[in-house]
Amino acid sequence: MLLTTKSGRVIEMPSDDEDVIINKGIAADSDTYQLTDAEFLQLKRVGRPLAETTKARITIRVDKDTLNIFKSRAEMVGGNYQTLMNEALKKYAQQELTK
Q1: Which of the four pLDDT bands, split at 50, 70 and 90, describes residue 97?
Q2: What CA dihedral angle connects 66, 67, 71 and 72, to 10 degrees?
Q3: What is the span of the domain harbouring residue 6?
Q4: Helices 64-77 & 81-97, crossing angle to 10 degrees?
Q5: Are 10 and 4 contacting, i.e. CB atoms less than 8 angstroms apart?
Q6: CA angle, 83 as apex, 10 and 89 as ends, to 5°?
Q7: What is the tens place of the pLDDT at every residue in 18-33?
Q8: Exposure string for 68-84, b = 16+ CB within 10 A, e = fewer
């Protein structure tokens, strides 16, 4: 069974047979156990730690050609196109301010 999260990520859920095998493995491992409902409710969500420098969320419109250039470059270097765009804007802004 496939499950789609709110973010659009698709997760393949285990079949009933796979679930039986997983639960047998949990039962056989003395270092693991299944949480009770009360224990599960006590868990707190842990998010990503705050960055040293935070960024502001904005909406910006760029033409498709520019966006595709940054996305292609990000794929080549293994990075994130938004980070590359941020670095390019920062570099440009710093150059303009030193004129």
Answers
A1: confident
A2: -40
A3: 2-97
A4: 110
A5: yes
A6: 145
A7: 999 998 998 899 888 8
A8: ebbbeebeeeeeebeeb
Structure tokens at 22: 């997983």
- Cα dihedral 7, 10, 15, 16, rounded to 10, equals 10
Whole-number Å distance between alpha carbons of 68 and 96? 25
What is the tens place of the pLDDT at every residue in 46-70?
Answer: 888 878 878 888 999 999 999 999 9
Amino acid residing at 66: T
Q: SS3 sequence, the chain?
A: CEEECCCCCEEECCCHHHHHHHHHHHHHCCCCCCCCHHHHHHCCCCCCCCCCCCCCCCCCCCCHHHHHHHHHHHHHHCCCHHHHHHHHHHHHHHHHHCC
The domain total for the chain is 1
